[in-house]
Amino acid sequence: MPLRRHQQELLDICESVLQGRSLTDVVCAVTPGGGKSLLPQILAARLIPTIADALCWVVPRRVLQDQGARGFQDPTHRTMLGHRLEAMVSTNQESPTRGCAAYVTTYQALAADARKINAKEFRRKRYILVLDEPHHMEADGVWHQAIHPLYEQAVLRVLMSGTFERGDRMRMAFMPYASSHQLDDIDWAHTESRAVIRYSLADAIREHACIDLTVHYANCQATWLDVQGIEHHVESLAEAGKKTSEALLTALKTEAALELLHTGVKAWQTYRATHPRSKLLVVAANIEQAQKYTAWLQARGVPAKIATSDDTSSAYRTIKAFKRQGISAVDCLITVAMAYEGLDVPAITHLICLTHIRTKPWIEQVVHRATRMDPLAGPYEEQRAYIYAPDDRPFRECMGYILAQRQVELRSSTSRAGIQEDASLDGSGLLPFMDRTELRMEPLSSGVLGIRQQGLWANMPGAAHVEEPQETPKERLDRLRVQIEKHVRAHEQSRRLKHGTVNGAVYRQFKKSRTSMTEAELSKVLRWVGKTFPV
Hints:
Residues 2-166 form the Helicase/UvrB N-terminal domain. It holds the Pfam family ResIII. The chain is α/β, with parallel strands linked by helices. The chain has 18 helices and 15 strands.
């Protein structure tokens, strides 16, 4: 499988660095679903050990740590780049790579690193620093301040995102701006020390990275009480005008959301009968609503699981199961904010968007969870994503932005020149978070009036085969620790020894805590306890 254009550009940049180019920064603007998760592997495979000793990849969520580590083990990626490198999942631990070429951590972990473990590590080794989705870092914010020492020490800094834009319109940390007056005036110019890579949705369509997309809009009527207790009613969410915020929130909290949920789930179940890999993602407005949808679906026999933004161990395990196929896999996931951004599950074919957030970067990120090409799902031209959402103007305008990018590709292809576009969607006037509106009203009732659909771009041929990822380095470490502990407890129980007797002997023998050992050291401990303390 050939590299996509932005991946090849980064590979070429690495070659120029190896030939002596004095480069300190790379900015990669890659449309969601375009394949930016391969970029850290390219950097590690080409620049370690000549330019750097290791790579640190910072992601916005814990679940993306595991995803990043698994990417290093993807057989297709390894064949493409010719490497056998691995990445360790690490959260403020001494020697975070544990013998691997890279470690993956989170912005939250770095902000909580009171002992400055990561900063010490960056002084000990030459590091490439990869900041994934850096729009999460507000300029001069807590995360910016926590990461600044690492940024200053790194031999190369790489910022990569599908949406270089913040929903609150504040400036992003570490991003160059062309003007001191306009907050969104990012400087995309190449300089002697900075390289810029841009990969649009049109590029992704051209290279078959994104699949066909159909949006099902549900128009609703809604009734609510305002703060004075006055009742309001709109007959059509699509034409609610200034009352769109209140009408949308009412629809999401009352019957209309469940009607849309029922419609989307029924369509997914029908599709899944002939496409067994297919998965469904439901994005709710908040944890309370997510719990409500989950209970509602489970009561109707749909094996839905929930993973909210709480980022608990249970949610983490659920998302891992959502990425699997077969026995013990989760096929229907209800989430809030935890699993939409960066979630790479190509098997997602259906997305039900029941959230009130209407910023363009957020909608663009969440919609593209379902548009990834799935190499294991058959020919490219047969794949399609299905989006179910309320029929409010802000959401249509967000989709209009995506549609506008599609037009770039269509204009350059005479074979699809006859396809008509909806010029009424201009991408302006998008609504931000609506929490304040929610506090000023009391939803009463709503109902779906009808559902219409809108197809986007035409499909194109091409597909490839990939194998499922293997056990990550962290999972191997965890497995070895569990095996050692089970053996130790079994020996103590069989000999009726006091708990901790064998563990004390292990520490005296190896002079090191097992939590700080490498895989080779843990393997040595397992062999030693098996020989010294037989069961």
